[in-house]
Write a structure and sequence with these properties.
The complex is a heterodimer of chains A (about 300) and B (about 290). By secondary structure, chain A is an all-alpha fold. Chain A has twelve helices and no strands. In chain B, about 45% of the residues are buried. The chains are: A mainly alpha (about 300), B alpha/beta (about 290).
Protein backbone atom coordinates (compact mmCIF):
# COMPACT_ATOMS: atom_id res chain seq x y z
CA UNK A 1 0.00 0.00 0.00
CA UNK A 2 1.48 3.36 -0.96
CA UNK A 3 2.08 5.80 1.84
CA UNK A 4 -0.31 8.77 1.91
CA UNK A 5 0.98 11.99 0.43
CA UNK A 6 2.92 14.22 2.77
CA UNK A 7 0.39 17.06 2.30
CA UNK A 8 -2.67 14.95 3.07
CA UNK A 9 -1.02 13.65 6.22
CA UNK A 10 -0.39 17.21 7.32
CA UNK A 11 -4.05 18.02 6.69
CA UNK A 12 -5.14 15.00 8.75
CA UNK A 13 -2.95 16.16 11.57
CA UNK A 14 -4.37 19.68 11.45
CA UNK A 15 -7.94 18.39 11.47
CA UNK A 16 -7.15 16.13 14.39
CA UNK A 17 -5.61 19.03 16.27
CA UNK A 18 -8.68 21.18 15.70
CA UNK A 19 -11.02 18.38 16.77
CA UNK A 20 -9.11 17.89 20.00
CA UNK A 21 -9.49 21.59 20.74
CA UNK A 22 -13.20 21.56 19.94
CA UNK A 23 -13.72 18.67 22.32
CA UNK A 24 -11.56 20.32 24.96
CA UNK A 25 -13.57 23.54 24.70
CA UNK A 26 -16.78 21.58 25.07
CA UNK A 27 -15.46 20.03 28.26
CA UNK A 28 -14.26 23.32 29.64
CA UNK A 29 -17.48 25.14 28.78
CA UNK A 30 -19.49 23.28 31.40
CA UNK A 31 -16.80 23.88 34.00
CA UNK A 32 -16.62 27.58 33.12
CA UNK A 33 -20.39 28.03 33.26
CA UNK A 34 -20.47 26.42 36.70
CA UNK A 35 -17.67 28.67 37.88
CA UNK A 36 -19.47 31.67 36.41
CA UNK A 37 -22.57 30.83 38.40
CA UNK A 38 -20.61 30.39 41.58
CA UNK A 39 -18.80 33.71 41.08
CA UNK A 40 -22.05 35.54 40.35
CA UNK A 41 -23.65 34.04 43.44
CA UNK A 42 -20.72 35.03 45.61
CA UNK A 43 -20.30 38.58 44.31
CA UNK A 44 -24.04 39.28 44.23
CA UNK A 45 -24.76 37.91 47.67
CA UNK A 46 -21.70 39.59 49.17
CA UNK A 47 -23.48 42.99 49.61
CA UNK A 48 -26.33 41.16 51.34
CA UNK A 49 -24.06 39.41 53.78
CA UNK A 50 -22.18 42.65 54.45
CA UNK A 51 -25.44 44.12 55.79
CA UNK A 52 -26.99 41.02 57.34
CA UNK A 53 -24.80 38.67 59.39
CA UNK A 54 -24.94 35.06 58.17
CA UNK A 55 -26.14 33.73 61.51
CA UNK A 56 -29.42 35.61 61.14
CA UNK A 57 -30.30 33.23 58.29
CA UNK A 58 -30.35 30.50 60.90
CA UNK A 59 -31.52 32.31 64.05
CA UNK A 60 -34.40 34.30 62.58
CA UNK A 61 -37.71 32.50 62.55
CA UNK A 62 -39.36 34.27 59.62
CA UNK A 63 -38.40 35.24 56.10
CA UNK A 64 -39.68 38.79 55.55
CA UNK A 65 -36.89 40.68 53.76
CA UNK A 66 -39.41 42.98 52.13
CA UNK A 67 -41.02 44.19 55.36
CA UNK A 68 -40.16 47.32 57.28
CA UNK A 69 -38.76 45.14 60.04
CA UNK A 70 -37.04 42.51 57.90
CA UNK A 71 -36.42 38.99 59.14
CA UNK A 72 -34.06 36.60 57.36
CA UNK A 73 -34.86 33.13 58.67
CA UNK A 74 -34.09 31.04 55.57
CA UNK A 75 -35.57 27.98 57.29
CA UNK A 76 -39.02 29.33 56.39
CA UNK A 77 -38.15 28.98 52.71
CA UNK A 78 -36.17 25.77 53.12
CA UNK A 79 -39.14 24.14 54.81
CA UNK A 80 -41.23 24.83 51.71
CA UNK A 81 -38.53 23.41 49.45
CA UNK A 82 -38.01 20.33 51.62
CA UNK A 83 -41.70 19.52 51.96
CA UNK A 84 -42.52 19.90 48.26
CA UNK A 85 -39.39 17.94 47.31
CA UNK A 86 -40.24 15.29 49.86
CA UNK A 87 -43.76 14.86 48.52
CA UNK A 88 -42.42 14.74 44.96
CA UNK A 89 -39.90 12.05 45.85
CA UNK A 90 -42.56 10.00 47.63
CA UNK A 91 -44.33 9.89 44.28
CA UNK A 92 -41.40 9.66 41.88
CA UNK A 93 -39.04 7.24 43.62
CA UNK A 94 -41.43 4.33 44.15
CA UNK A 95 -43.39 4.84 40.94
CA UNK A 96 -40.30 5.57 38.88
CA UNK A 97 -38.43 2.58 40.27
CA UNK A 98 -41.34 0.19 39.80
CA UNK A 99 -41.76 1.41 36.25
CA UNK A 100 -38.05 0.99 35.59
CA UNK A 101 -38.13 -2.57 36.89
CA UNK A 102 -41.20 -3.33 34.84
CA UNK A 103 -39.81 -1.87 31.63
CA UNK A 104 -36.42 -3.47 32.02
CA UNK A 105 -37.40 -6.93 33.25
CA UNK A 106 -40.99 -7.64 32.33
CA UNK A 107 -42.31 -5.51 29.49
CA UNK A 108 -42.21 -6.94 25.98
CA UNK A 109 -39.72 -5.07 23.79
CA UNK A 110 -42.40 -3.42 21.69
CA UNK A 111 -44.26 -2.09 24.70
CA UNK A 112 -41.01 -0.73 26.12
CA UNK A 113 -40.19 1.03 22.88
CA UNK A 114 -43.65 2.59 23.00
CA UNK A 115 -43.78 3.55 26.66
CA UNK A 116 -40.32 5.00 27.10
CA UNK A 117 -40.60 7.92 24.68
CA UNK A 118 -44.12 8.64 25.89
CA UNK A 119 -42.92 8.72 29.46
CA UNK A 120 -40.11 11.05 28.52
CA UNK A 121 -42.72 13.43 27.14
CA UNK A 122 -43.87 13.93 30.73
CA UNK A 123 -40.73 15.91 31.43
CA UNK A 124 -41.18 17.92 28.25
CA UNK A 125 -44.47 19.43 29.39
CA UNK A 126 -43.88 23.11 30.28
CA UNK A 127 -43.78 23.43 34.04
CA UNK A 128 -46.20 26.37 33.94
CA UNK A 129 -48.78 23.94 32.54
CA UNK A 130 -48.07 21.56 35.39
CA UNK A 131 -48.40 24.43 37.83
CA UNK A 132 -51.87 25.40 36.67
CA UNK A 133 -52.87 21.76 36.43
CA UNK A 134 -51.96 21.40 40.09
CA UNK A 135 -53.70 24.61 41.11
CA UNK A 136 -56.88 24.30 39.05
CA UNK A 137 -57.41 20.56 38.70
CA UNK A 138 -55.58 18.63 41.38
CA UNK A 139 -56.14 21.00 44.32
CA UNK A 140 -59.97 21.05 43.91
CA UNK A 141 -59.90 17.25 43.68
CA UNK A 142 -57.79 16.97 46.80
CA UNK A 143 -60.10 19.41 48.57
CA UNK A 144 -62.88 16.86 48.21
CA UNK A 145 -60.76 14.49 50.30
CA UNK A 146 -59.26 17.06 52.68
CA UNK A 147 -61.78 19.91 53.00
CA UNK A 148 -59.23 21.93 55.02
CA UNK A 149 -56.75 21.95 52.17
CA UNK A 150 -55.85 25.55 51.39
CA UNK A 151 -56.15 27.01 47.92
CA UNK A 152 -52.39 26.83 47.62
CA UNK A 153 -50.85 23.67 48.99
CA UNK A 154 -47.47 22.03 49.03
CA UNK A 155 -49.15 18.64 48.72
CA UNK A 156 -50.70 19.43 45.38
CA UNK A 157 -47.54 21.06 44.00
CA UNK A 158 -45.38 18.23 45.30
CA UNK A 159 -47.56 15.51 43.79
CA UNK A 160 -47.47 17.11 40.36
CA UNK A 161 -43.75 17.73 40.64
CA UNK A 162 -43.37 14.04 41.45
CA UNK A 163 -45.13 13.10 38.24
CA UNK A 164 -42.89 15.48 36.34
CA UNK A 165 -39.71 13.82 37.62
CA UNK A 166 -40.82 10.20 37.18
CA UNK A 167 -39.16 10.02 33.75
CA UNK A 168 -35.81 11.04 35.23
CA UNK A 169 -35.94 8.11 37.62
CA UNK A 170 -37.38 5.63 35.15
CA UNK A 171 -35.21 6.45 32.19
CA UNK A 172 -31.88 6.39 33.99
CA UNK A 173 -32.96 3.54 36.24
CA UNK A 174 -34.08 1.38 33.36
CA UNK A 175 -30.85 1.99 31.47
CA UNK A 176 -28.76 0.94 34.43
CA UNK A 177 -30.89 -2.16 35.06
CA UNK A 178 -30.63 -3.26 31.48
CA UNK A 179 -26.88 -2.87 31.64
CA UNK A 180 -26.73 -5.55 34.34
CA UNK A 181 -25.17 -8.48 32.48
CA UNK A 182 -27.49 -11.28 31.34
CA UNK A 183 -24.98 -13.70 32.85
CA UNK A 184 -25.89 -12.47 36.34
CA UNK A 185 -29.58 -13.00 35.71
CA UNK A 186 -28.90 -16.47 34.33
CA UNK A 187 -26.94 -17.31 37.47
CA UNK A 188 -29.99 -16.56 39.59
CA UNK A 189 -32.42 -18.28 37.23
CA UNK A 190 -30.21 -21.37 37.28
CA UNK A 191 -30.62 -21.53 41.06
CA UNK A 192 -34.37 -21.66 40.57
CA UNK A 193 -35.32 -18.06 41.11
CA UNK A 194 -38.30 -16.52 39.32
CA UNK A 195 -38.48 -13.35 37.31
CA UNK A 196 -39.53 -11.12 40.18
CA UNK A 197 -36.89 -12.56 42.50
CA UNK A 198 -34.17 -12.04 39.92
CA UNK A 199 -35.34 -8.47 39.33
CA UNK A 200 -35.40 -7.59 43.03
CA UNK A 201 -32.52 -9.62 44.39
CA UNK A 202 -29.99 -9.46 41.57
CA UNK A 203 -30.83 -6.76 39.03
CA UNK A 204 -31.88 -4.10 41.53
CA UNK A 205 -28.73 -4.28 43.68
CA UNK A 206 -26.64 -4.67 40.54
CA UNK A 207 -28.07 -1.46 39.13
CA UNK A 208 -28.02 0.46 42.37
CA UNK A 209 -25.28 2.88 41.40
CA UNK A 210 -27.30 3.94 38.37
CA UNK A 211 -30.47 4.16 40.42
CA UNK A 212 -28.74 6.31 43.02
CA UNK A 213 -27.67 8.66 40.25
CA UNK A 214 -31.26 8.74 39.02
CA UNK A 215 -32.55 9.58 42.50
CA UNK A 216 -30.01 12.36 42.94
CA UNK A 217 -30.91 13.86 39.62
CA UNK A 218 -34.58 13.70 40.61
CA UNK A 219 -33.86 15.42 43.93
CA UNK A 220 -31.88 18.19 42.26
CA UNK A 221 -34.63 18.65 39.73
CA UNK A 222 -37.29 18.87 42.45
CA UNK A 223 -35.29 21.24 44.64
CA UNK A 224 -34.71 23.55 41.71
CA UNK A 225 -38.23 23.42 40.29
CA UNK A 226 -39.79 26.88 40.28
CA UNK A 227 -42.96 27.35 38.27
CA UNK A 228 -45.05 24.54 39.72
CA UNK A 229 -44.39 25.56 43.32
CA UNK A 230 -44.71 29.29 42.61
CA UNK A 231 -48.13 28.73 41.08
CA UNK A 232 -49.58 25.96 43.22
CA UNK A 233 -47.80 26.00 46.58
CA UNK A 234 -48.23 29.68 47.40
CA UNK A 235 -45.86 32.59 47.86
CA UNK A 236 -46.18 33.03 51.61
CA UNK A 237 -42.95 31.98 53.40
CA UNK A 238 -44.06 29.89 56.32
CA UNK A 239 -42.09 27.63 58.61
CA UNK A 240 -44.33 24.58 58.42
CA UNK A 241 -43.86 20.94 57.59
CA UNK A 242 -47.52 20.28 57.01
CA UNK A 243 -47.95 19.46 53.31
CA UNK A 244 -51.61 20.48 53.45
CA UNK A 245 -50.51 24.04 54.16
CA UNK A 246 -49.25 26.59 51.69
CA UNK A 247 -45.67 27.82 51.80
CA UNK A 248 -43.14 29.49 49.53
CA UNK A 249 -40.07 27.60 48.44
CA UNK A 250 -36.64 29.14 47.89
CA UNK A 251 -37.17 29.18 44.14
CA UNK A 252 -40.68 30.60 44.43
CA UNK A 253 -39.33 33.47 46.50
CA UNK A 254 -36.61 34.18 43.95
CA UNK A 255 -39.04 34.29 41.06
CA UNK A 256 -41.51 36.41 43.02
CA UNK A 257 -38.90 39.04 43.89
CA UNK A 258 -37.14 39.07 40.55
CA UNK A 259 -40.44 39.54 38.69
CA UNK A 260 -41.55 42.30 41.09
CA UNK A 261 -40.59 45.92 40.97
CA UNK A 262 -37.97 46.00 43.69
CA UNK A 263 -35.10 48.33 42.78
CA UNK A 264 -31.74 46.68 42.13
CA UNK A 265 -29.43 47.17 45.04
CA UNK A 266 -32.16 47.12 47.69
CA UNK A 267 -31.71 44.60 50.45
CA UNK A 268 -34.83 42.77 49.30
CA UNK A 269 -33.37 42.33 45.85
CA UNK A 270 -30.01 41.23 47.20
CA UNK A 271 -31.70 38.65 49.41
CA UNK A 272 -32.58 36.53 46.39
CA UNK A 273 -28.89 35.92 45.76
CA UNK A 274 -28.43 34.82 49.33
CA UNK A 275 -31.38 32.45 48.87
CA UNK A 276 -29.89 31.30 45.58
CA UNK A 277 -26.54 30.63 47.21
CA UNK A 278 -28.21 28.48 49.88
CA UNK A 279 -30.09 26.59 47.20
CA UNK A 280 -26.86 26.03 45.29
CA UNK A 281 -25.12 24.68 48.38
CA UNK A 282 -28.04 22.35 48.97
CA UNK A 283 -27.98 20.92 45.45
CA UNK A 284 -24.22 20.61 45.64
CA UNK A 285 -24.60 18.69 48.87
CA UNK A 286 -27.12 16.29 47.34
CA UNK A 287 -24.94 15.75 44.31
CA UNK A 288 -21.87 15.02 46.41
CA UNK A 289 -23.86 12.63 48.56
CA UNK A 290 -25.19 10.93 45.45
CA UNK A 291 -21.71 10.67 44.04
CA UNK A 292 -20.40 9.09 47.23
CA UNK A 293 -23.32 6.66 47.23
CA UNK A 294 -22.60 5.74 43.65
CA UNK A 295 -18.96 5.13 44.35
CA UNK A 296 -19.83 2.98 47.30
CA UNK A 297 -22.04 0.76 45.19
CA UNK A 298 -20.01 0.98 42.04
CA UNK A 299 -17.79 -1.95 42.85
CA UNK A 300 -20.84 -4.02 43.54
CA UNK A 301 -22.33 -3.38 40.15
CA UNK B 1 -6.07 -27.44 18.98
CA UNK B 2 -3.45 -25.83 16.81
CA UNK B 3 -0.85 -26.11 19.54
CA UNK B 4 -0.97 -29.85 19.46
CA UNK B 5 1.53 -31.67 17.27
CA UNK B 6 -0.24 -33.03 14.27
CA UNK B 7 -0.14 -36.74 14.01
CA UNK B 8 -1.48 -38.08 10.80
CA UNK B 9 -2.41 -41.56 11.83
CA UNK B 10 -2.09 -42.25 15.51
CA UNK B 11 -1.68 -45.92 16.20
CA UNK B 12 -4.75 -47.47 17.74
CA UNK B 13 -4.70 -48.02 21.46
CA UNK B 14 -2.03 -45.42 21.85
CA UNK B 15 -2.93 -42.19 23.68
CA UNK B 16 -3.07 -39.30 21.28
CA UNK B 17 -0.30 -36.78 21.61
CA UNK B 18 -0.76 -34.10 24.20
CA UNK B 19 -3.58 -35.83 26.03
CA UNK B 20 -2.87 -37.25 29.41
CA UNK B 21 -5.22 -39.93 30.57
CA UNK B 22 -4.04 -40.08 34.14
CA UNK B 23 -2.43 -43.49 33.72
CA UNK B 24 -5.59 -45.29 32.77
CA UNK B 25 -5.27 -48.30 30.54
CA UNK B 26 -6.81 -48.35 27.12
CA UNK B 27 -10.12 -49.97 26.55
CA UNK B 28 -11.60 -51.49 23.45
CA UNK B 29 -14.97 -50.10 22.27
CA UNK B 30 -16.49 -53.53 22.86
CA UNK B 31 -15.54 -53.30 26.49
CA UNK B 32 -17.46 -50.07 27.00
CA UNK B 33 -19.18 -50.92 30.23
CA UNK B 34 -21.76 -49.00 32.19
CA UNK B 35 -21.14 -50.15 35.71
CA UNK B 36 -23.08 -47.22 37.13
CA UNK B 37 -26.77 -46.42 36.73
CA UNK B 38 -27.82 -43.50 34.56
CA UNK B 39 -28.65 -40.23 36.28
CA UNK B 40 -29.94 -38.34 33.28
CA UNK B 41 -31.38 -40.14 30.29
CA UNK B 42 -31.52 -37.98 27.20
CA UNK B 43 -33.72 -39.56 24.57
CA UNK B 44 -34.01 -38.33 21.00
CA UNK B 45 -33.61 -34.76 22.11
CA UNK B 46 -33.95 -32.14 19.40
CA UNK B 47 -33.81 -28.44 20.03
CA UNK B 48 -34.87 -25.48 17.90
CA UNK B 49 -34.09 -21.78 18.08
CA UNK B 50 -37.18 -20.62 16.22
CA UNK B 51 -37.05 -22.66 13.02
CA UNK B 52 -33.33 -23.33 13.25
CA UNK B 53 -32.60 -26.83 14.50
CA UNK B 54 -29.57 -26.90 16.77
CA UNK B 55 -29.75 -30.39 18.25
CA UNK B 56 -30.63 -33.42 16.16
CA UNK B 57 -32.10 -36.33 18.03
CA UNK B 58 -29.45 -36.70 20.69
CA UNK B 59 -29.63 -39.82 22.83
CA UNK B 60 -27.25 -40.06 25.74
CA UNK B 61 -27.13 -41.50 29.24
CA UNK B 62 -25.26 -39.49 31.83
CA UNK B 63 -23.98 -41.90 34.48
CA UNK B 64 -24.53 -41.16 38.14
CA UNK B 65 -21.69 -39.68 40.17
CA UNK B 66 -19.32 -39.45 37.27
CA UNK B 67 -17.95 -36.65 35.17
CA UNK B 68 -19.33 -36.54 31.64
CA UNK B 69 -17.57 -34.21 29.22
CA UNK B 70 -19.25 -32.74 26.14
CA UNK B 71 -16.68 -31.89 23.49
CA UNK B 72 -16.82 -30.74 19.90
CA UNK B 73 -16.00 -27.77 17.71
CA UNK B 74 -17.66 -24.37 18.26
CA UNK B 75 -21.29 -24.37 17.23
CA UNK B 76 -21.68 -28.14 17.56
CA UNK B 77 -24.47 -27.74 20.11
CA UNK B 78 -22.71 -28.90 23.26
CA UNK B 79 -23.62 -25.80 25.30
CA UNK B 80 -27.14 -25.93 23.87
CA UNK B 81 -27.42 -29.52 25.05
CA UNK B 82 -26.13 -28.61 28.50
CA UNK B 83 -28.66 -25.80 28.81
CA UNK B 84 -31.51 -28.13 27.85
CA UNK B 85 -30.87 -30.14 31.00
CA UNK B 86 -31.94 -27.34 33.35
CA UNK B 87 -34.30 -25.70 30.88
CA UNK B 88 -32.30 -22.49 30.62
CA UNK B 89 -33.65 -22.11 27.09
CA UNK B 90 -37.06 -21.35 28.56
CA UNK B 91 -35.76 -17.91 29.51
CA UNK B 92 -35.84 -16.79 25.91
CA UNK B 93 -38.83 -16.80 23.58
CA UNK B 94 -39.08 -18.95 20.48
CA UNK B 95 -37.18 -21.98 21.75
CA UNK B 96 -38.57 -25.48 21.41
CA UNK B 97 -37.59 -28.90 22.71
CA UNK B 98 -38.51 -32.31 21.32
CA UNK B 99 -37.82 -35.66 22.89
CA UNK B 100 -37.31 -36.33 26.54
CA UNK B 101 -34.78 -35.87 29.33
CA UNK B 102 -35.46 -38.14 32.27
CA UNK B 103 -34.00 -37.50 35.66
CA UNK B 104 -33.38 -40.79 37.48
CA UNK B 105 -34.12 -42.51 39.80
CA UNK B 106 -37.63 -41.00 39.76
CA UNK B 107 -37.76 -41.02 35.99
CA UNK B 108 -39.44 -37.63 35.74
CA UNK B 109 -39.31 -36.04 32.31
CA UNK B 110 -37.66 -32.64 32.63
CA UNK B 111 -39.17 -31.56 29.33
CA UNK B 112 -42.56 -33.07 30.05
CA UNK B 113 -45.72 -31.01 29.92
CA UNK B 114 -46.58 -29.36 33.21
CA UNK B 115 -43.00 -29.62 34.42
CA UNK B 116 -42.08 -26.39 36.17
CA UNK B 117 -38.65 -25.20 34.95
CA UNK B 118 -38.03 -23.67 38.37
CA UNK B 119 -38.44 -27.05 40.03
CA UNK B 120 -36.03 -28.52 37.47
CA UNK B 121 -33.43 -25.82 38.07
CA UNK B 122 -33.54 -26.37 41.81
CA UNK B 123 -32.20 -29.88 41.25
CA UNK B 124 -29.40 -28.79 38.93
CA UNK B 125 -26.49 -26.58 39.81
CA UNK B 126 -24.90 -24.54 37.06
CA UNK B 127 -21.49 -22.92 36.69
CA UNK B 128 -20.95 -20.56 33.79
CA UNK B 129 -18.15 -19.61 31.40
CA UNK B 130 -17.32 -16.50 33.33
CA UNK B 131 -17.59 -16.15 37.10
CA UNK B 132 -20.90 -14.41 37.80
CA UNK B 133 -21.17 -13.73 41.52
CA UNK B 134 -24.16 -11.62 42.50
CA UNK B 135 -23.57 -8.05 43.73
CA UNK B 136 -23.85 -9.27 47.30
CA UNK B 137 -21.63 -10.57 50.05
CA UNK B 138 -19.79 -13.88 49.78
CA UNK B 139 -22.16 -15.35 52.35
CA UNK B 140 -25.30 -14.16 50.58
CA UNK B 141 -24.07 -15.54 47.28
CA UNK B 142 -23.79 -19.05 48.70
CA UNK B 143 -27.01 -18.69 50.70
CA UNK B 144 -29.00 -17.53 47.66
CA UNK B 145 -30.16 -20.96 46.51
CA UNK B 146 -30.72 -22.15 50.07
CA UNK B 147 -32.98 -19.21 50.80
CA UNK B 148 -34.88 -19.89 47.57
CA UNK B 149 -35.54 -23.38 48.82
CA UNK B 150 -37.03 -21.94 51.96
CA UNK B 151 -34.17 -22.19 54.42
CA UNK B 152 -34.23 -19.21 56.75
CA UNK B 153 -32.78 -20.29 60.09
CA UNK B 154 -29.50 -18.52 60.65
CA UNK B 155 -27.72 -21.51 62.14
CA UNK B 156 -28.74 -23.87 59.35
CA UNK B 157 -27.71 -21.34 56.74
CA UNK B 158 -24.36 -20.74 58.45
CA UNK B 159 -23.71 -24.46 58.48
CA UNK B 160 -24.61 -25.05 54.84
CA UNK B 161 -22.70 -22.00 53.62
CA UNK B 162 -19.58 -23.15 55.44
CA UNK B 163 -19.96 -26.69 54.11
CA UNK B 164 -20.35 -25.49 50.53
CA UNK B 165 -17.40 -23.13 50.82
CA UNK B 166 -15.25 -25.91 52.25
CA UNK B 167 -16.24 -28.22 49.41
CA UNK B 168 -15.34 -25.51 46.95
CA UNK B 169 -11.92 -25.20 48.65
CA UNK B 170 -12.60 -21.56 49.37
CA UNK B 171 -13.42 -21.54 53.07
CA UNK B 172 -9.93 -20.82 54.38
CA UNK B 173 -9.50 -17.92 51.99
CA UNK B 174 -12.77 -16.20 52.79
CA UNK B 175 -13.81 -17.22 56.31
CA UNK B 176 -12.64 -13.92 57.76
CA UNK B 177 -14.58 -11.84 55.25
CA UNK B 178 -17.78 -13.73 54.61
CA UNK B 179 -19.75 -10.52 54.63
CA UNK B 180 -17.44 -8.67 52.27
CA UNK B 181 -18.45 -8.18 48.67
CA UNK B 182 -17.95 -11.15 46.39
CA UNK B 183 -16.59 -8.84 43.71
CA UNK B 184 -13.45 -8.21 45.70
CA UNK B 185 -12.34 -11.82 45.14
CA UNK B 186 -9.98 -12.81 42.34
CA UNK B 187 -11.37 -14.41 39.18
CA UNK B 188 -10.45 -17.93 40.27
CA UNK B 189 -11.90 -17.37 43.74
CA UNK B 190 -15.08 -15.96 42.20
CA UNK B 191 -15.46 -19.08 40.08
CA UNK B 192 -14.99 -21.31 43.13
CA UNK B 193 -17.58 -19.16 44.89
CA UNK B 194 -19.95 -19.84 42.00
CA UNK B 195 -19.26 -23.55 42.43
CA UNK B 196 -20.00 -23.25 46.15
CA UNK B 197 -23.22 -21.44 45.25
CA UNK B 198 -24.17 -24.19 42.80
CA UNK B 199 -23.52 -27.09 45.19
CA UNK B 200 -24.85 -25.49 48.38
CA UNK B 201 -28.36 -26.79 47.75
CA UNK B 202 -27.17 -30.38 47.22
CA UNK B 203 -28.31 -30.59 43.60
CA UNK B 204 -28.55 -33.93 41.80
CA UNK B 205 -26.43 -32.78 38.90
CA UNK B 206 -23.99 -29.91 38.44
CA UNK B 207 -23.61 -28.48 34.94
CA UNK B 208 -20.36 -26.75 34.02
CA UNK B 209 -20.28 -24.60 30.89
CA UNK B 210 -16.59 -24.14 30.05
CA UNK B 211 -15.93 -23.13 33.65
CA UNK B 212 -12.23 -22.39 33.20
CA UNK B 213 -12.23 -20.54 29.89
CA UNK B 214 -11.74 -17.19 31.65
CA UNK B 215 -9.14 -18.39 34.16
CA UNK B 216 -5.37 -18.71 34.32
CA UNK B 217 -3.71 -22.17 34.47
CA UNK B 218 -3.33 -22.24 38.26
CA UNK B 219 -6.95 -21.26 38.90
CA UNK B 220 -7.94 -23.77 36.21
CA UNK B 221 -6.16 -26.67 37.89
CA UNK B 222 -7.85 -25.82 41.20
CA UNK B 223 -11.25 -25.95 39.52
CA UNK B 224 -10.37 -29.24 37.86
CA UNK B 225 -9.36 -30.78 41.17
CA UNK B 226 -12.64 -29.62 42.59
CA UNK B 227 -14.66 -31.19 39.83
CA UNK B 228 -12.91 -34.53 40.31
CA UNK B 229 -13.57 -34.26 44.04
CA UNK B 230 -17.23 -33.38 43.43
CA UNK B 231 -18.12 -36.54 41.58
CA UNK B 232 -17.89 -38.47 44.82
CA UNK B 233 -21.33 -37.22 45.61
CA UNK B 234 -22.81 -35.54 42.60
CA UNK B 235 -23.16 -36.10 38.88
CA UNK B 236 -21.20 -33.66 36.75
CA UNK B 237 -21.69 -32.67 33.13
CA UNK B 238 -19.04 -30.36 31.72
CA UNK B 239 -18.76 -28.62 28.39
CA UNK B 240 -15.17 -27.93 27.49
CA UNK B 241 -13.14 -26.70 24.55
CA UNK B 242 -10.05 -28.01 26.18
CA UNK B 243 -9.44 -31.61 25.19
CA UNK B 244 -6.69 -32.09 27.73
CA UNK B 245 -9.14 -30.96 30.37
CA UNK B 246 -11.73 -33.46 29.20
CA UNK B 247 -9.03 -36.15 29.26
CA UNK B 248 -7.88 -35.21 32.74
CA UNK B 249 -11.16 -35.00 34.58
CA UNK B 250 -13.92 -36.86 32.78
CA UNK B 251 -15.02 -40.46 33.01
CA UNK B 252 -17.24 -40.33 29.96
CA UNK B 253 -16.89 -38.22 26.86
CA UNK B 254 -19.49 -37.27 24.31
CA UNK B 255 -18.29 -35.88 21.01
CA UNK B 256 -20.76 -33.70 19.17
CA UNK B 257 -20.66 -32.30 15.71
CA UNK B 258 -23.23 -30.16 13.84
CA UNK B 259 -25.89 -30.77 16.45
CA UNK B 260 -25.51 -34.52 16.46
CA UNK B 261 -23.98 -36.83 18.99
CA UNK B 262 -21.25 -38.57 17.04
CA UNK B 263 -19.73 -40.72 19.70
CA UNK B 264 -20.18 -41.38 23.38
CA UNK B 265 -18.14 -43.63 25.60
CA UNK B 266 -15.56 -43.93 28.33
CA UNK B 267 -13.12 -41.10 28.06
CA UNK B 268 -9.95 -43.13 27.69
CA UNK B 269 -11.58 -45.30 25.07
CA UNK B 270 -12.87 -42.31 23.08
CA UNK B 271 -9.50 -40.62 23.23
CA UNK B 272 -7.38 -43.66 22.43
CA UNK B 273 -9.58 -45.69 20.18
CA UNK B 274 -12.32 -43.53 18.70
CA UNK B 275 -14.91 -45.47 16.77
CA UNK B 276 -15.85 -42.68 14.37
CA UNK B 277 -13.49 -40.96 11.95
CA UNK B 278 -14.88 -37.50 12.86
CA UNK B 279 -14.03 -38.09 16.50
CA UNK B 280 -10.54 -39.15 15.59
CA UNK B 281 -10.07 -36.12 13.34
CA UNK B 282 -11.23 -33.75 16.05
CA UNK B 283 -9.23 -35.33 18.84
CA UNK B 284 -6.07 -35.48 16.78
CA UNK B 285 -6.47 -31.79 16.02
CA UNK B 286 -7.25 -32.12 12.36
CA UNK B 287 -10.25 -29.79 12.62
CA UNK B 288 -12.25 -27.86 15.17
Amino acid sequence: MPLPQESSRRLDKAVEGIMVWVLRLGGWASVLVTFGIVITLITESEPFFSKVPFRRLITDKMWTPLFADPQYGISALLAGTLVTTGVALLVAVPLGTILAIYLSEFAPVRLRELVKPMLELLSAVPTVVYGYFALLTLTPLLQKIYPDLSQFSMLSAGLIMGIMIIPYVTSLGEDSMRSVPMLLREGAFALGDGKLGVALRVVFPGAFSGLAAAYVLAISRAVGETMIVAIAAGLQPKLTFNPLDSAATVTAFIVQVSLGDLPHGSIGYQSIFAAGAVLFLMTLGFNLAGHALRRRFHRAA
Amino acid sequence: MSTQPQSLSPAKNEPLPGISLGGRTNVDPAEDKRPVPAKVQIQELSFFYGTHQVLRSVTLEVPKDQVTALIGPSGCGKTTLLRCLNRMHDLYPGNRYEGSVKLQPEGIDILGPGMDPIQVRMRFGMVFQKPNPFPKSIYENVAYGLRLQGMSKRRELDERVEKALREAALWDEVKSRLHGLAHNLSGGQQQRLCIARAIATDPDVVLFDEPTSALDPIATSKIEELIVELKKRVTVVIVTHNLQQAGRISDMTAFMYLGELIEFGETNRVFTNPAKPQTEDYISGRFG
